[in-house]
Amino acid sequence: MGFTDEMITAADVNCDNAVDAVDASNILAYYAYIATGGSGTISEYLQ
Q1: What is d(CA 2, CA 29) in angstroms, rounded to the nearest whole number?
Q2: CA distance 47 to 45
Q3: H-helix or E-strand containing 17?
Q4: Close Cβ partners of 38 (under 8 Å, ≥ 6 residues apart)
Q5: How confident is the model at residue 6 (pLDDT cuts 50, 70, 90)?
Q6: Cα separation of 1 and 23, whole Å?
Q7: What is residue 1's predicted lDDT score, i.e. its pLDDT?
Q8: End-to-end CA distance of the chain, in Å?
């Protein structure tokens, strides 16, 4: 079973048409931000 287009789009958080370690790092950094009281969407966080 592969990933759906929707899953790939969701995982490509920096919108560079690749799901890679940069996306994983951004997701983990966003998680740490939210876990320590941050707020907002991941898109807002990455701007």
Answers
A1: 26
A2: 6
A3: none
A4: 45
A5: very high
A6: 21
A7: 75
A8: 33
Q: Could you tell me which of 22, 12, 13, 15 has the C-alpha nearest to residue 41? A: 13
Q: Please give the Cα distance from 26 to 22 (Å, whole number).
A: 6
Main-chain dihedrals φ then ψ at residue 6, nearest 5 degrees: -65, -40
Would you state the pLDDT for residue 36?
Answer: 98
The tokens for 45 are 């966080």
List pLDDT tens digits, range 8-45. Answer: 999 999 999 999 999 999 999 999 999 999 999 999 99
